[in-house]
Specification:
The structure holds three protein chains of three kinds.
Chain A (H helix, E strand, L loop, with lengths): L27 E5 L7 E7 L2 E12 L12 E8 L14 H15 L10 E11 L4 H16 L8 E8 L2 E4 L3 H6 L2 E8 L4 E5 L2 E2 L3 H31 L4
Parallel strand pairs in A: 4-5
Antiparallel strand pairs in A: 1-2, 2-3, 3-5, 6-7, 6-8, 8-9, 8-10
Helix pairs in contact in A: 2-4
Chain B lengths: L11 E2 L4 E2 L6 E2 L3 E4 L2 E4 L3 E6 L2 E6 L11 E10 L2 E5 L6 E4 L12 H4 L5 E9 L5 E4 L6 E3 L3 E4 L5 H5 L4 H10 L2 E4 L4 E5 L2 H17 L5 H9 L5
Helix pairs in contact in B: 3-4, 4-5
Chain C lengths: L7 H12 L15 E5 L7 E7 L2 E12 L10 E8 L14 H17 L8 E3 L3 E13 L4 H14 L2 E2 L10 E2 L7 E8 L2 E4 L3 H6 L3 E6 L5 E7 L6 H25 L2
Parallel strand pairs in C: 4-6
Antiparallel strand pairs in C: 1-2, 2-3, 3-6, 5-6, 7-8, 9-10, 9-11, 11-12
Helix pairs in contact in C: 2-3
The chains are: A alpha+beta, B alpha+beta, C alpha+beta.
Chain lengths: 242, 227, 261
């Protein structure tokens, strides 16, 4: 019962393969202002994931047909570097990346104050340098910090978090083995300051109770991650270095 | 709680941060009102100005306003129109009729070509931040010598200083002519060493202007020391 | 890539500075920016490096794949090197198919490495006519503030020297370190304000003209060269550049040596 084939994902004492408890997140490190060429930027390491994000804008929205009369267009590119996964990814069009770019843009279009910049666009460039499950969430987190760093007005910062199910147990923050061999995945983009959900996808098999448990884990994790995001921004601008 | 108050480190706020004190104040730039008090929408320092709570952003794009003095680069030329990059979300337009020369239709490039720099004034700005510029006015002209550097628009008040004191001391120490435009561009003209000193002072403001102690850092920089 | 408008004032200022033997950054004519090199920094790559060159940042990952050798070279492995100038790296980079600039970057770095012979292609062969290793170098520019060629070239050779062939994963033996016989290094010189300088930064590239990128091997031999962008140069200018190049390549080679075992 549980995972795919014979892969055992939970130890007998209930801990996970990497030693974490079921409601424990992988370690997270965040830095703001890492790409000098960008208007705003951020770097996120979450477990073995490594993500950078640059924000450019607001700028003129080209071509004309993508312009919106009364608000800015949020233009997101989520891209995985060829060396980011154990099997190399050929550079070029990728359907998964295209979909993630779309729903990520829609998340930020809901929280960025786009009416401030009609007919313009804000570019969010997310690059995955290293992928070990949870890259779309790390991308959301990096983008929020980069947007704040760029001075783009937002109602709040979106935090990317995911929970799932392995061996009939709901767990927080799936790692690669758990994502591959587990039973469900629930990535979300939560704005902890208001409790709003701007991004949500799910695949697998979850009962209503399991869904609620997974969402609870995500909300708790989002609040903690938000503190780390805030610390990164403060470190950049309040830090003692000249 | 004025920003840049001597001694006190300004309070940095992040987007979404709830500000529960000063609930009686009006919401200004970078602040929206909510049931919990005020919410900051931008990364910046919290300021209280005559009853309005607002955020001085650390980083922001230049948003043109009517009357602004701007330094622009010509990006494109049509037969009767110049498109200027003024560091805003859109190019500004400079029509033939608002140029200081008598321009024949089709002749625009002979007066000012792509890549040239110009000191102009924003005349009209519409709701979507599109700008029409004019060169008719005192001091407005093509810029044909010197150096142009950029500074975040939020740091312009720091660059000017109280009653223009800071910009004056930079001019004197570097022996340069300096014009600060509202779109975050600064024109400097002088000898190489002077320009370098002025640019260095401007960089100090760009990098550290949001923190306290700016005055002493600038004094050290203009005295010739490395900061 | 969107074309950038070059401010005429910048060109003029660069020319004035050059006449006084000065540069915007205050650097000397042949002086480069500070370079930081980190290897083994990408978890899923078989070899990797990150170069922070002034404000320019480049990652390179090396991956190995088992392929059938090309029919005209049945006992040889192969090398592939490509670059992406993604929109993350600069406002001027627009999304779309690979730009001529990114293709040029990939091919220039490729030539320097390939022509130096630093990798023994025949040693990459496992079963002649059936299987051989393909070494794939992927250059990922994250921030472009000038001289991505030198940053990418340095990261590429450092990543190769850091690389481990993942034989175990493909069931063809035990993992082993890729043998890299020498360390080719690229140096790029750009005409700024009328004269050549080493390691142009962002403004110097914007206001400058043509560039010369030269790869030298350990013994000082040239392995590749590329003149790019609009402009012409003289043999005498090239001669002066080659002298500087020999010294600078040696310095960067030492940097790589210090970071890889």
């Amino acid at each position: 019962m549980g995972g795919y084939g014979d892969v055992k994902l939970l130890n007998d004492d209930g801990s996970r393969l990497d030693g974490r408890s079921i409601d424990e997140s992988r370690p997270v490190e965040i830095k703001a202002g890492v790409i000098p060429a960008a208007d705003g930027s951020a770097w996120v390491r979450h477990g073995l994931n490594e993500v950078v994000c640059a924000v450019y804008g607001p700028m003129e929205a080209h071509p004309r047909k993508i312009q919106l009369q009364d608000q800015a267009v949020i233009d997101v590119r989520y891209n995985m570097a060829p060396f980011s996964t154990s099997d190399r990814i050929r550079p070029g069009f990728n359907r998964r990346s295209r979909e993630i770019s779309k729903v990520t843009a829609e998340a930020f279009a809901s929280t960025v104050m786009v009416e401030r910049y009609p007919r313009s666009k804000i570019r969010i460039e997310i690059e995955i340098l290293s992928a070990e499950a949870g890259t779309r969430c790390a991308g959301l987190t990096a983008a929020s910090v980069a947007l704040a760093d760029a001075g783009i007005p937002m109602r709040g910062m979106i935090v990317g978090v995911a929970s799932g199910k392995v061996e009939d147990t709901v767990v927080l923050d799936l790692d690669k083995a758990e994502d591959n061999y587990g039973q469900a995945d629930l990535p979300m983009g939560i704005m902890p300051t208001t409790g709003e959900i701007a991004f949500m996808q799910m695949d697998g098999d979850l009962s209503m109770e399991e869904l609620q448990q997974a969402m609870d884990y995500n909300f708790a994790a989002a609040a903690e991650m938000h503190d780390i995001m805030e610390a990164a921004l403060r470190a950049r601008y309040e830090g003692g270095d000249e | 709680m004025k920003g840049n108050q001597k001694g006190a480190e300004p309070r940095l706020v992040i987007p979404g941060e709830v500000i529960s004190d000063h609930a009686n104040l009006n919401p200004g730039c970078g602040i929206i009102k909510s049931t919990d008090g005020h919410i900051a929408t931008r990364l910046g320092t919290l300021n209280n100005n005559e009853g309005t709570l607002h955020v001085q952003p650390i980083n922001a794009t230049y948003m043109p306003r009517s009357g602004d003095l701007v330094i622009g680069y010509v990006e494109a030329v049509l037969s009767n129109l110049w498109f200027l990059d003024v560091a805003g979300p859109f190019n500004a337009l400079l029509p033939m009729s608002l140029a200081p020369w008598k321009v024949e239709f089709g002749d625009a490039r002979n007066h000012m070509d792509v890549g040239e720099a110009v000191l102009a004034r924003a005349q009209e700005v519409d709701e979507s931040h599109s700008v029409v510029c004019t060169m008719k006015g005192v001091g407005l002209r093509k810029i044909s010598e010197g150096r142009i550097v950029s500074i975040p628009v939020q740091q312009i008040p720091n660059l000017r200083g109280e009653n223009g004191a800071t910009i004056q001391s930079i001019k004197e120490a570097s022996d340069c002519r300096i014009i600060v435009a509202e779109n975050g561009r600064v024109w400097i003209d002088g000898d190489t060493a002077g320009i370098r000193m002025a640019v260095q002072a401007i960089n100090v403001i760009t990098m550290t202007g949001h923190r306290s102690g700016l005055e002493s850092r600038l004094t050290a920089c203009l005295a010739g020391g490395e900061v | 890539m969107a074309s950038q408008v070059v401010p005429q004032l910048l060109r003029q200022y660069l020319a004035n500075l050059a006449a006084d033997d000065e540069r915007i950054s205050g650097r000397g004519q042949w002086q480069g920016r500070e370079v930081e090199l980190e290897v083994d920094c990408l978890y899923n790559a078989d070899g990797s490096a990150k170069v922070v060159w002034g404000d320019t940042i480049v990652y390179v990952g090396v991956k190995f794949e088992l392929r059938e050798p090309y029919s005209d070279r049945p006992t040889s492995g192969s090398l592939m090197c490509g670059a992406e100038l993604r929109p993350v790296a600069h406002r001027k980079y627009e999304p779309g198919p690979p730009s001529p600039e990114s293709i040029e970057l990939g091919r220039v770095v490729d030539r320097g490495i390939r022509e130096s012979g630093c990798i023994d292609m025949d040693a990459l062969c496992i079963v002649p006519g059936e299987s051989a290793w393909m070494v794939i170098i992927d250059i990922h520019v994250i921030s472009d503030c000038g001289n991505i060629f030198d940053a990418a070239g340095l990261a590429a050779i450092a990543a190769l020297r850091n690389a481990t062939v993942p034989a175990a994963r493909y069931d063809v033996g035990e993992d082993y370190k890729l043998a890299v016989a020498l360390t080719p290094i690229i140096c790029t010189f750009t005409r700024v304000g009328g004269r050549y300088v080493y390691d142009a930064d962002e403004e110097e590239e914007l206001g400058g003209a043509e560039r010369l990128s030269i790869t030298l091997g350990d013994n000082g031999n040239m392995h590749s060269m590329q003149k790019g962008l609009k402009g012409t140069f003289t043999a005498a200018e090239l001669s002066e550049i080659l002298d500087v190049c020999a010294t600078r390549c040696g310095e960067l080679r030492e940097l790589v040596d210090s970071k890889v075992e």
